[in-house]
Amino acid sequence: MKILVLNWQDLANPQSGGAEIHLHEIFGRLARRGHTVHALVSGWPGAPARARADGMEIHRTGGRNTFSLAAPAYYRKHLASEPWDVVVEDLNKVPLFTPYWVRRPLVLLVHHLFGATAFREASVPFAAATWLLERPIPRVYHGLGTQAVSESTADDLVSRGLRRSDITVIHNGVDLAFFSPDPSLPRLAEPTFLYVGRLKKYKRIDLAVEAVHLLKERGHPARLRIAGRGDDEVNLRALVERLGVSDRVSFEGFVSEERKRELLRTSWANVLPSPKEGWGITNVEAGACGTPAVAADSPGLRESVVHGETGLLVSYGDASALADALASLTAERVARLGAGARRFAEGLSWDRAADRTEAHLAEVSTRPR
Question: Which of 61, 70, 86, 259 has the largest count of CB atoms under 10 Å?
């Protein structure tokens, strides 16, 4: 197949996250299987307009805030005449409304929609714009073959008006060879927890900081390592200072995949207190390393964490409940939950996800146009 994927960013983008990992893991595999894969993504200052990565041809146009306008123009000028078998709109920011300007067989791939959670992250004008741009999705994408990365996302799409029969759920995978336990690398002696990902307001990393503060007040030893970068770092650092937990919370900054694996292996649990995720890929990466997760009992996350078996789920927004959950993790319980998390992760692989994606795209590409 000749496949075009439209995604807001590629993995080389400094703002990349889980959606970009998915892009490269899935479509990179399809490229290595012999399919021709091109990706149309946004650029950033100093980024080359063209690149090749994981067997894919990367086209960059516009920027983070202008991609939705730049992408249709670039497509019409450079890509519209190509004989694509299928075009995939990877929706993970705001919709590109491809049915209005792409005439090939289309697939909508959805990680998660923001809905009202946009107001937790952005200013009111930007949040309102995001909310409004999501409103026409059921009408614009009606009848398209759609992929959702979780049942929670599928349920969200159905609640907005898409047909459940058009939606195929394909869970994200994990690199089980790379993310794996290492008996020679012991966990830190003191209870140490990890957040890894973008530092964004809507991720509610502040709840993890507050939980560590509560544990300090209770005399319970606990540390938090925050790995990643983002525009909420300034606020998080200020909160750490204000709560007096600078001796308990450290900022790792951007980390390599090797360093991320080391952090996951040596931590007692991965912490993800977000109100909504498409899947929560770091929970599964942690599990593959034999490390449990403590996450909010929220859409997406409750699928990547099996409460009491691979980690713990706590009520969203409750820092005290999060602190209780962290305090309950003895070394023995961490070991038991970590073993369960590894077993759970072993049922999820990128190869499996790529197989299902390949089959779905092939089926859509042969439908009558």
Answer: 86
pTM exceeds 0.85, yes or no: no
Range 192-346: architecture per CATH:
3-Layer(aba) Sandwich (3.40)
Domain ranges of the chain: 2-173+350-365, 192-346
Angle at 93 between CA 271 and CA 17, to 5 degrees: 40
AA letter at 301: L
Q: Where are the beta strands (DSSP E) in the chain?
A: 2-7, 36-41, 50-53, 56-60, 86-91, 106-110, 145-148, 167-169, 192-196, 223-227, 249-253, 269-272, 293-296, 311-314
Q: What angle do CA 263, 265, 269 make, to 5 degrees?
A: 80
If we measure between CA atoms, which residue out of 158, 173, 62, 67 comes closest to residue 113? 158
pLDDT tens digits for 241-271? 999 999 999 999 999 999 999 999 999 999 9
Take residue 149 and report the two structure tokens written for it.
């990365």
| The CATH number, out of the four listed (3.40.50.2000, 3.40.50.620, 3.30.390.30, 3.40.50.720), of the domain defined by the range 2-173+350-365 | 3.40.50.2000
* Helices (H) then strands (E): counts for the chain: 15, 14
Strands 56-60 and 50-53: antiparallel
CB 313 within 8 A of CB 301: yes
pLDDT per residue as tens digits for the range 92-151? 778 999 999 998 899 999 998 865 554 455 555 555 666 677 788 999 999 999 999 989
